[in-house]
Design goal:
The protein is of the alpha+beta class. Helices cover 42% and strands 29% of the residues. It has 2 domains: 40 residues; 52 residues, IHF-like DNA-binding proteins (HU Protein, Chain A), CATH 4.10.520.10. Helix 1 crosses helix 2. The longest helix has 20 residues. The relative contact order is 0.12.
């Protein structure tokens, strides 16, 4: 499911205009993004949680040339699946 499919599903389930459903989805994702940028954790019970992980810099190697390069430290979003979702998906 992509974002536009989510918007359509919300509009259908809640009998909303597509424009209103799009506003709702964009607001939710926007607020989640803002919280992550501030370094806050976002938890959706039964689904999972998002947080920012800090990765240290390291020396890597360009696989094409073999040249050693320095990879800068970075922050990336990390998703941890919730127990309920994990159990629902792992039915087989």
């Amino acid at each position: 499911m992509n974002k536009s499919q989510l918007i359509e599903a919300l509009a259908k389930a809640e009998d909303l205009a597509l424009k209103k459903a799009e506003e709702v989805v964009n607001t939710v994702f926007g607020d989640m993004e803002k919280a992550l940028v501030r370094g806050e954790r976002v938890e959706i019970r039964g689904f999972g949680s998002f947080k920012i992980k800090n990765y240290d810099g390291y020396q890597g190697r360009n696989p094409k040339t073999g040249e050693i390069i320095n990879v800068a430290p970075k922050k990336l979003p990390f998703f941890k699946v919730g127990k309920e979702l994990k159990e629902r998906v792992d039915i087989a």
